[in-house]
Amino acid sequence: MELVCPAGNLQALKLAIENGADAIYTGFRDDTNARHFAGLNFSDAEYEQAIRLVRTRQRKLFLAINTFAQAGQWPRWQRAVDRAAELGVDALIVADLAVLDYAANRYPQLPLHLSVQASATTQEALRFYQRSFAIRRAVLPRVLSLQQLAAVSKEAPCEIEVFGFGSLCIMAEGRCQLSSYLTGESPNTCGACSPARFVRWEEKNRMLESRLNGVLIDRFAEQENAGYPTLCKGRFIVDGKRTHALEEPVSLNTLELLPELIHNGIRAIKIEGRQRSPSYVAQVTKVWRAAIDAATHAPENFSSRPDWQQALAQLSEGKQTTFGAYQRAWQ
């Protein structure tokens, strides 16, 4: 099983390699990539360093061109594919049908991975993408139960990659309509939901308030952990009770499910967090490297070590973790 780790900059990429990543996924500094934050991502010169590093250490470099091209802006997505091919990356991570078509026809030797943002959840959908664009791998969205995942993986026409750790999203992956509604900017091309320039913090009556474009998202008491203000994870009054009406601030953690994921033929585990710090990348990669090695060597004897779980809990939203949709009984 391959461990695929995030890198928002060169330092994170170096630490991912040092701590055991098999592959590192990255993006260009523009809106062709869904983590288009200021200060994140790689310049051309940094990509050339990154390529040398991964080749020296015999790892892989993936590049995400995973946004949907905008009307009238198509040449920018074409140039991104051309540049990725020139750099010699090991795979492109793509969601847009037109980008897939361009890459598959222009560079048939360049491996294509179907992005999670394509939201393919059936064998039929995977067969379409494999037949049309010869995808080598598909990243499945975080909406399937383990039983559904096993059914899709069983006869999939390509490798399957799933998320193992990181923040969760309740909307279609990376295309939050709630954030677009409040800020007027699409997470598809502006980096992520809740762009930082719309976020405000204010102390009032000994409480810390978080707002997104002026809308109150949450209030925190002095001893509470104050989460980043995303609309889906705010607390609101529902039936007279203040609660997380849509989703709690919590991170996916499938460490304990590793034997089942291996049994179901999952080819790769992806760690979420290109916008997170190099330290986060190093710590998470180290834990998952050790866990995957242990589970692969002897899955029947695998157990999740307390120190692994403690380390991951410290890096999780609200210091809480969940199996997410993998174990939602109603599915």
UniProtKB/TrEMBL annotation:
PROSITE patterns: PEPTIDASE_U32. Its cofactor is [4Fe-4S] cluster. Forms a heterodimer with UbiV. Pathway: Cofactor biosynthesis; ubiquinone biosynthesis. InterPro entries: Peptidase_U32 (IPR001539), RNA/ubiquinone_mod_enzymes (IPR051454), UbiU (IPR043692). [4Fe-4S] cluster binds at residues 169, 176, 193, 232. This is Ubiquinone biosynthesis protein UbiU. GO terms for biological process: proteolysis; ubiquinone biosynthetic process. The gene is ubiU. It comes from Permianibacter aggregans. GO terms for molecular function: 4 iron, 4 sulfur cluster binding; metal ion binding; peptidase activity. Keywords: 4Fe-4S, Hydrolase, Iron, Iron-sulfur, Metal-binding, Protease, Ubiquinone biosynthesis. The keyword Hydrolase applies.
